[in-house]
Amino acid sequence: MSQLVNETLMVKETVEAAQSAVRPLLEIKHLSKSFTGVQALNDVSLEIQQGEIRALLGENGAGKSTLIKVLTGVYPRDNGEILLDGSLISASDSGHAQRLGISTVYQEVNLIPTMSVMENLTLQHQEKTFGLISWKKAEIRARELLAQVGLDIDPLRQLDTYSIAIQQLVAIARALSTQAKMLILDEPTASLDSDEIKQLFNLMARLKSEGLGIIFVTHFLDQVYSITDSITVLRNGECIGTFKTAELSRSDLVSHMVGKSLEDLAPTAHDHSIKRERTELLQLNNVGKQRYLQPLDLNIAAGEIVGVAGLLGSGRTELCELAYGSVKPDQGEVTLSNHSLTKSSLRRAIQVGMGYCPEDRKQDGIVAELSVRENMILALQASKGWWSPISMAEQQKLVEEMIQRLAIKTPDMDKPIGELSGGNQQKVILARWLITHPALLILDEPTRGIDIGAHHEIIQIIKELCEQGMGLLVASSELEELVMFAHRVVVMKDHHKVSELHGDEVSEQAILRTIAS
Amino acid sequence: MKKNNFLHKHQKTLAPLLSLVLIILITASVTPGFLSIRMVDGHLFGSLLDILHRATPTALVALGMAVVIGTRGIDLSVGAVIAISGAVTAVLTVNTDWPVWVVILCALGTGMLCGLWNGILVSVFNIQPIVATLILMVAGRGIAQMITEGQIVTFHSDVLDAIGNGYFLAFPIRVWIAIGMIVLTVLVMRKTALGLFIEAVGANVRASRLVGIEARLLVLSAYVFSGLCAAMSGIILAADIRGADANNAGLWLELDAILAVVLAGASLAGGRIYLLLTIVGVLIIQTLTTAILTSGLPAQYNLVVKATIILAVLLVQSPKTRQWLSDFFMKKKHAENSRTGNPDTGKGSIEP
């Protein structure tokens, strides 16, 4: 009898031992989450082991950020289970998630810029002596945490005196301060340069060797292949699959992400030459600004699309801003159709035919609380001035036309634009400029953050506008997109123009070679 | 389902309106005769008319405040501007033989000058609105005292008497003035490009700049408008008591005005403002004051009772409370459905 008990105990122990050996660090089972009518996550399951770096990939709107927010308790889940180290967890907010062992570092650094590095690091847990904060101990603790991420900086200095890259590492140091088991990095590399990325990857490799599980969200496929062990692909809220990084080819990965094979995506042969006679529109002569952009020349003719390529931070946006006039150059001349705009107001620039869709749609593009109609007529009305109002009938006619022409999906034109999807918001901003009949339209990342269908439509619109004789300056981080429509591509690097590719020279490889050279 | 959507869409509008109706009904049940309106000599009388009559100065100030708040600003100086314009009205009436309309124009002009001062500090010198207008809030009463030389100046003028207490078409003249201003402001804010620009600048100043809207002049004009509204209010208040009291005219009125704008659901961070709901907010505040005074409650309880009820109204409006309520009802519905074994019918009618 007692022998039997002993045996069962032994069996039980071995089973438990075996289980803990394979037991994943994090298990997500059948997770679902929906928002009003939209299934953001649909029955997503995945497992992450200790010491594993998992890439979480997907196009915009695939459900990556929803998954992270459900994991960290920012959103409540509709269905499903989350197990950390074998025990069921249910975080109520991100602070709670962190205490449970899941720490997150977001793309926008989530620290307080005006406090010192030390204060930021010890904000959630202060070192105390006799119940009062001991800044001496706090400093020691801060130095320990910084050493952990390989940073040798003065913890007493104010955080915002350091670069974004260092702030990002400080954020990771803070995330690690609470005995994290899982670290979620949500696009941490978006604003880092290559050396800083290397520094981050070294840190990730070390944390991995210490047994941490890491979820790494990024848009850069190179980084996925250089650091991750495995890849989970989400698409439209569903988990398409989890793959070993080494066993998944890039083309297969992209196919999984977009739900199409690469052949479908292959750009059709595009004629890079313009057929009409050159009528110069925009002319930048030696335009530059100190600590902003090295002086450069650029001409754009009617019916021509000029692409601006370059890595993040290479000066793409800076070029657009100087050309538009929202940042004034300190040297050089800007003219549009023979009007000098070097010192003019934006209103004047718009009156003579300039238009600009900025990169950051939320901050610089939409006025979220105003309706679709109001957002759309804003630029035209501003160029006319408030004293010569556009009649309501006229407004409705213009807006209705644009909604039809750009296939904008909105129940009615009086819906606040903030409630539309990213792609439709972008179309409204495009329409805002189209109704001013610009001669030259500057588009900075026109397809960022919008779904693949709208992406295609916007590229189609760009081509049509060009055929109608508009000049376009399009900055984009997506090379395949630029190559598809640009007649010429300006390549930017370290805030100056390194090259201009014409006609048949325009290809992804050529652009990449120029950037790399 | 359709009704639910309607409620959901107009939740923001309904909350202040329902609060006002509730407060009126409760007061009516406590105070007999509260709702009765009599016609005497072609003039309407009654507690409700009294509320309208007393609410006009606050309503005018709140209009200007709403526009300023729409630009992400705030105007703390309106109480002081009331004192100044009241003082100007009184002193000019007593010391000069100028026609009354010139006196009124002078008082209004003074208010607009005060607004211009605030506007320049805010939009040209980029001083934070709360600090910029604090300066005039403090200094303004001093200026008013200097104008009246520290005395309460009393005056007599038939026209000003009429503005203060006269009647036109059964309603007090001052109520007509307020209605005129409200209609005018709503028209400008809702139907003109100027209103559109002011709201756009308040909601997203960066995007507005990029489409070529010059924010500076718009913000400036919002403060000038607020000064004008405060001056009107100051003239009415001075006309009401036939004198200018530099120390007490419009005292703390700026706070009532801000409260009214907030009760209407506007955000102090700028953007969409709700002018008509702001007036509902003013009426809520005035109804409470009148109700407490007529209910026979000892005077020392007034302020605390008023504050408590306003807190309740704000709580009802807060998104958090609404979330709780909707969660509560959802659970209840779910529980009922699972009891009847019919899990699906409850879904869809309540939004997350």
Percent strand of chain A:
15-25%
Provide mean pLDDT of chain B, rounded.
Answer: 86
The CATH superfamily of the largest domain in chain A is identified as P-loop containing nucleotide triphosphate hydrolases
Q: Using the alpha-carbon principal axes, give the shape of chain B.
A: globular
Spatial strand arrangement across the major sheet of chain B: 1-2
**Overall CATH class of the largest domain in chain B:** Mainly Alpha
Supply the number of structural domains of chain B.
2
Which regions of chain B contain 5 or more consecutive residues with pLDDT less than 50? 341-352
Largest sheet of chain A: 6 strands, mixed
- Enumerate how many helices of chain B there are, as a single number: 15
**Share in helix of chain A:** 25-40%
Structure classification of chain A: alpha/beta
Overall SS class of chain B: mainly alpha
Provide an overview of this structure.
The complex is a heterodimer of chains A (517) and B (352). With 517 residues, chain A is of the alpha/beta class. Chain A folds into 2 domains: 24-265, 3-Layer(aba) Sandwich (Rossmann fold); 280-516, P-loop containing nucleotide triphosphate hydrolases (Rossmann fold), CATH 3.40.50.300. In chain A, the strands form 5 sheets. A 6-stranded mixed β-sheet of chain A has the order 6-9-10-3-11-12, with helices on both faces. In chain A, strands 18-19-20-15-21-22 form a 6-stranded mixed β-sheet, with helices on both faces. In chain A, strands 2-1-4-5 form a 4-stranded antiparallel β-sheet, covered by helices on one side. In chain A, helix 14 runs parallel beside helix 16 (422-434). Mean pLDDT of chain A is 84; it is low at 15-19 and 265-269. Chain B is mainly alpha-helical and 352 residues long. Chain B has 2 domains: 2-304, Orthogonal Bundle (ABC transporter involved in vitamin B12 uptake, BtuC); 318-352. Chain B has helices at residues 2-9, 11-30, 47-70, 78-95, 100-124, 129-148, 158-165, 173-191, 193-203, 205-210, 215-241, 253-263, 275-294, 302-317, 319-340; strands at 38-40, 43-45, 153-154, 167-168, 171-172, 243-244. Chain B has a two-stranded antiparallel ribbon with strand order 1-2. In chain B, strands 3-6 form a two-stranded antiparallel ribbon. In chain B, strands 4-5 form a two-stranded antiparallel ribbon. In chain B, strand 4 and strand 5 form a beta hairpin. Chain B is globular and about 80 Å long. The two termini of chain B are 15 Å apart. Chain A: Residues 26-261, 277-514 form the ABC transporter domain.
